From TrEMBL:
InterPro entries, alphabetized: BphY/WalK/GraS-like, HATPase_C_sf, HATPase_dom, His_kinase_dom, HisK_dim/P_dom, HisK_dim/P_sf, PAS, PAS-like_dom_sf
Residue ranges annotated for the Histidine kinase domain, each copy included: 443-656
EC assignment: 2.7.13.3
Reactions catalysed, as given in the entry: ATP + protein L-histidine = ADP + protein N-phospho-L-histidine
Protein name: Sensor-like histidine kinase SenX3
Domain PAS: 309-384
């Protein structure tokens, strides 16, 4: 602390001595320039967080009083000026820490960066803080001087106020900028020219033609310097030529020296205003230029970085083996990479504005035409959550056909327009390989049924002949193994049929179909002497689908729910339907079983997946998924929202025939007739 205090004290004394050299008129008049105010402000701002700040403030006041007394000032006025300087510096430091954080601070800590005045907001805040502190000092000092010296003039108070504000703006702006002097020789050459022209102009205005009041013309040179020179040299220009104006005026030369000879304080006030205008104009223009240059540099850096990233992104996108396309709200192509063009069977160049529709030759994987409204990105633009979808592409460029998987995602731009990102992936080889395997599995399953039937037949013969003998138990094992084998083979055949069989859609009355399935499960439970399941059916809209496949779908889902029944608990199943978007019907099957773990709700629909304790081939739910997808729907498993168990949800096309409308009318009439007598219909 002590070395820093000593340095500030020495600098403060030098500033007082320099200020005393600018006294106009009588020896006890006010100095025109008073850099000591700026030094005191910077001094106490740096000491604001120190526990010794009051010691520094005291040293500041004592030095002021001693220095002024040494120059011949009355001891009472010297003490008054010392107290005023301390009060003003403390007020400035407190306000500056709040309104100008980090300015001039050179100590340790997060704010110890020594940031100088550098922006227009900094200049405005410095002007406001300096004006407030100087007003406080001028009021206190003016009142004290009136009481001690009996001077009632308001001019002295105004001089005091303007002098201190200008001091903070000019000399405070110079703080922490001594190391920012440029080293460019071209800058120094231009600075030498501007300084030389300024010197000649000031000499002409204040000495050669001093009777003409044209001091305002010198402001243009300050504007020139502020626009062309670095801020440090601009501040130097204001300091040098502001002092020049004061020196000429102090020696009775220049347009301001002749103002009101009977009141010397008036020309002092005017020359201070002149210096203040120079400082404000020069600093405002210099700071504005610095901010503009910094902003331009940031923009250039951002542009360079954005260009580099855009180039890198373009290189990455163009080198992708997967296709990438961005579509606008109307379905037009905004951008696509070469891989997308190859996969879609079109040109590799980026196309803008052209629509990506069914004219590219889009079909369902089974060959059925795919309408524009069914395209995954069109559904995404319509607000749907679209799962990855396989599309068959066959056009002039791809006559043999190619199956491409579409992955889509919506993008919301800041302007509110919707865009869709589509990623294309060629899955032709994968699907062909999978189809070949499943076809082979279907053929093998079909071929194995004959020898399996033979095994089952001979096992029955052996069981009959060995009835009553112990080896008959081993024959039972053969029969159970054969039954498991038949279940597995039937599952393979069912999956093959669900995958390859031709769809024969018709209007299906789900009420009749589910009632028949429920009756069969009741009969099966009675024959097995197990608890019969309880079924509850809600509204069941008609669907347009293949009746054989839909029966298999419902039977597999119901059997899966019965297998997951909790021990000792009667199975309860609830089935209901409701309209879904895009002409579909959503069907929910809820059970009260053990439920499916959250991490397994997607895996249960994969081939050969078997849960713990479940029988079957592991293809039952995979068959369900295949049936639903062949009808253009989706299927998912979730927790039962009304208790334990699972909710299976799938969609099928809504019935479009007159029979479907009749069924819907019958349901509505039945609901209306049952409503008055139903307690649940009138909740209280």
């Amino acid at each position: 602390m002590l070395p820093s205090t000593v340095r500030f004290a020495v600098l403060y004394l030098v500033a007082i001595a320099a200020g005393q050299l600018t006294i106009l008129g009588m020896p006890d008049a006010m100095p025109v320039i008073w850099p000591a105010t700026a030094v005191a402000a910077v001094w106490l701002v740096n000491r604001n967080d120190s526990r010794w700040r009051w010691v520094d403030a005291t040293v500041l006041g004592v030095l002021t009083a001693v220095a002024l007394a040494a120059t011949g000032m009355d001891i009472g006025l010297a003490l008054l000026h010392g107290g005023t300087a301390t009060l003003e510096a403390l007020a400035f430091a407190v306000a500056a820490v709040r309104w100008m954080p980090g300015i001039w601070v050179t100590g340790a800590g997060p704010e110890g960066t020594g940031r100088p005045l550098a922006t227009l907001p900094d200049l405005v805040r410095a002007l406001m803080v300096a004006t407030g502190a100087a007003f406080l000092g001028a009021a206190f000092g003016g009142l004290g001087q009136h009481l001690i010296a009996g001077d009632p003039s308001l001019t002295v108070t105004a001089i005091w106020l303007i002098r201190d504000v200008v001091s903070v703006l000019v000399f405070g702006a110079a703080a922490h900028r001594l190391l920012a002097v440029p080293s460019d020789q071209r800058v120094w050459r231009e600075a030498a020219i501007i300084y030389a022209i300024s010197a000649a102009a000031y000499f002409y205005v204040f000495s050669v033609n001093e009777d003409l009041p044209i001091g305002f013309a010198l402001l243009a040179i300050t504007v020139w310097a502020a626009l062309r020179l670095p801020t440090a040299l601009t501040i130097g220009h204001v300091m040098v030529f502001g002092t020049t104006a004061a020196v000429f005026t102090m020696h009775g030369q220049g347009p301001y020296a002749a103002i009101d000879h009977d009141s010397p304080g008036t020309h002092t006030l005017v020359v201070q205003l002149f210096i203040g205008v120079l400082a404000l104009v020069g600093l405002a223009l210099a700071f504005s230029r610095d901010e503009r240059n910094a902003l331009i540099e940031r923009l250039r850096a951002s542009e360079f970085e954005a260009t580099e990233k855009a180039g890198l992104m373009t290189t990455i996108v163009n080198s992708m083996t997967e296709g990438l396309a961005i579509l606008d709200q109307a379905g037009g192509l905004v951008l696509r990479n070469p891989a997308a063009g190859r996969l879609l069977g079109s040109t590799n160049q980026v196309a803008g504005g052209s629509a990506l529709g069914s004219d590219y030759g889009f079909f369902h994987p089974d060959g059925a035409p795919l309408a524009d409204a069914e395209l995954p990105y069109q559904r995404a633009l319509a607000g749907e959550d679209v799962q990855p979808m396989d599309v068959l592409i066959r056009n002039a460029a791809v006559p043999e056909g190619r199956i491409v998987r579409f992955n889509v995602a919506r993008l919301a731009s800041p302007g509110g327009q919707q865009h869709v990102v589509v990623v294309f992936h060629d899955v032709t080889a994968d699907r062909r390989h999978r189809d070949e395997l499943m076809s082979f599995a279907g053929m093998v399953a079909h071929d194995l049924l004959n020898p399996l039937t033979t095994i089952e037949g001979w096992a029955e013969v052996l069981e009959t002949e060995l009835a009553g003998y112990k080896p008959a138990e081993r024959v039972g094992r053969i029969q159970r193994a054969a039954a498991r084998m038949r279940t597995f083979l039937n599952g393979l055949l069912a999956y093959t049929a669900a995958r390859d069989g031709k769809l024969m859609p018709t209007t299906i009355n789900l009420q009749l179909l589910l009632t028949d399935i429920a009756n069969s499960r009741h009969d099966q439970a009675e024959s097995n002497r197990t608890q019969p399941p309880q079924f509850a059916f809600g509204q069941l809209d008609a669907v347009e689908a293949d009746p054989v496949l839909v029966r298999q779908l419902l039977e597999n889902l119901i059997d899966n729910a019965l297998e997951l029944a909790a021990p000792g608990v009667a199975p309860q199943l609830s089935v209901a339907a409701q309209p879904a978007p895009n002409g579909m019907v959503r069907i929910d099957i809820l059970d009260n079983g053990l439920g499916i773990p959250p991490g397994m709700r997607q895996a249960i629909f994969t081939n050969f997946h078997q849960g713990e304790g479940q029988g079957g081939s592991g293809l039952e739910l995979a068959v369900c998924k295949r049936i639903v997808e062949r009808h253009g729907g989706t299927i998912e498993a979730a927790a039962n929202p009304y208790g334990s168990g699972t909710r299976m949800t799938f969609t099928l096309p809504a019935g479009r025939s007159a029979y479907a409308r009749v069924l819907e009318n019958q349901w509505q009439q039945r609901t209306q007739a049952a409503a008055p007598s139903s307690p649940a219909a009138h909740p209280r």
